[in-house]
Write a structure and sequence with these properties.
The chain has about 230 residues and is an alpha/beta fold. Helix content is about 35%, strand content about 25%.
C-alpha cells in the first residue's frame, strides 16, 4: 500500500467524500498517478485509468480490479465517445500543455449529463502558503504578478482559473466548487499532524468552510464538479 503524507491522505479523503455518489458507474481516472483514487473507486465501479509515468505505474495500488493504460492525450482519443458516466482529473491540467484539448476530449467521452471532477491548484492559496508557511516572499510576489510555481515531483505548475474550464469547452456547466486544504497547509506543527483526533477535527472544519466563498478564495485547491450539458461538434 502506498504511504501517503498526511496532507495528501486528508485531501483524498475529502475528495472521495465529495464524490460519494460514484457507485456502479463507468469511470475514467486521467492522470491516475499511483492509482490510489483509481483503486478506491474500482471497488464498485468499472474503471479505466490513464497515466504516463512508468515509475508510478510500477508502484500503483492494485487491490481492486481496474484497467490501467499507459499514456496521455493520445490514449483519450482511442476511447469510445459517450462511454463514461464520470471522469476524474485531479491535479493534472496544471502540468499539461494541451489542457484545452484534454477538456474537449473529456466532453466527447462523457455520456449525456455525465460528470467531470477536476481538482486544481488555487493561486491565492499558494500565495498564502508561500508567505505564512515557507516565508518565500520572492515566489509569493512572482505568483501575485501572474507567474507560476513548481512542484518537486512534477515540474512547473501552470495555474488556470476555474472559469477557464468553461472557456475551453463552453458546453460544460459548473455544478459546484469546493475549497480544499484551506487550513492544514498552514499548520507548522508536524507532530500534531500524525494525531488521528487532530486529523478528524481538521477534516470537520475543512468540510464546514469548503462551500464558503471567502474560504474558497484562499484554499490551496479547488474541487469542481462539471456536467456535460449539450453536444459539442468538433
Amino acid at each position: 500500500m502506498i504511504k501517503l503524507p498526511t496532507w495528501e491522505l486528508l485531501a483524498k479523503k475529502m475528495t472521495w467524500e465529495q464524490l460519494e455518489f460514484i457507485h456502479n458507474m463507468r469511470v475514467l481516472d486521467f492522470g491516475s498517478g499511483y492509482g490510489v483514487t483509481a483503486n478506491y473507486f474500482a471497488a464498485d465501479n468499472d474503471l479505466i485509468a490513464i497515466e504516463p509515468n512508468e515509475e508510478m505505474l510500477a508502484e500503483r495500488e492494485v487491490e481492486n480490479n481496474y484497467m490501467q493504460l499507459k499514456g496521455s492525450t493520445e490514449q483519450l482519443k482511442e476511447l469510445e465517445s459517450e462511454s463514461f458516466d464520470i471522469i476524474l482529473c485531479h491535479n493534472v491540467l496544471e502540468y499539461a500543455s494541451d489542457r484545452d484539448e484534454i477538456v474537449r476530449e473529456f466532453y466527447r467521452l462523457l455520456k449525456p449529463e455525465g460528470k467531470l471532477s477536476i481538482v486544481k491548484h488555487n493561486r491565492s492559496g499558494r500565495v498564502m502558503q508561500m508567505v505564512v508557511l515557507l516565508n518565500n516572499f520572492e515566489n509569493a510576489n512572482k505568483l501575485l504578478d501572474g507567474g507560476n510555481s513548481s512542484a518537486e515531483k512534477y515540474g512547473d505548475i501552470h495555474y488556470y482559473e476555474d472559469c477557464d474550464l468553461i472557456k475551453w469547452c463552453p458546453q460544460f456547466s459548473i455544478l459546484s466548487i469546493q475549497g480544499m486544504r484551506t487550513f492544514w497547509d498552514l499548520q507548522q506543527n508536524q507532530e500534531i499532524q500524525t494525531d488521528s483526533q487532530w486529523q478528524e477535527k481538521m477534516l470537520q472544519i475543512e468540510r464546514k468552510v469548503s462551500y464558503i466563498k471567502e474560504y474558497q478564495d484562499i484554499a490551496f485547491f479547488h474541487h469542481l464538479i462539471l456536467e456535460k450539458s449539450a453536444r459539442l461538434h468538433i
